[in-house]
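fold-stage: in
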Amino acid sequence: MNDGKININLQLGEHRISASIELKQEEWYRDATRLLNTRFKYYADIMPKTSSELIWVYVALEMATNYKSVSAKKSLEPIDEKLKELNKKIEQITK
């Protein structure tokens, strides 16, 4: 039994990796691979004399800062919802 897992091969720049993932996550992995390769190409084009290793560092830094930004926004969503709810109550009371 494979427990819903599949083996996939991904090409990240000049690196080929294999991963065992859940079938429902395959599209995420493929999309992530496309995104990483697109960002790698962007940095390689604007910094043609930079090593691949350093370009991957730039890509990793960009992805990490994007992740932190999204995480910060998500952590504020419950607070934002509560503030909206409280504002509605204040508006009802002050009418």
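fold-stage: in (second)
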Amino acid sequence: MSAQSISTLEWTAIAQVFVNCAIAIYAWQATKHKASLTQIDTLKGRLNKRLDDHSKRLTKLEIDQHHFPTDKDIGELAYDIRALEGSLKAVTAEMEGMKDISKILRHQIETMDDYLRKLPS
């Protein structure tokens, strides 16, 4: 079968097969590309939402940071705590000195209580 013996109808059928194959390949590529674009758009939306959430969180942290104590504030607080510790040591020493007085007073009160309980009514 030579090229001259093929009729026009047969050439048309062969051309139609090639055109159908080309259309099928184009449709497959277009559908694949469209699915990829849909996935990309979905991922972009999710990423934008996450970025917005992170932006809000970062803004909140920046606002909260203004309320944090500075190094100077922390230094002053440490100084005040040391001064308070010294005062507490002085008060503790005074309380130790009053412990003996407290024992004496307690003994006197108990003695008076015993005396008063033994009195006839």
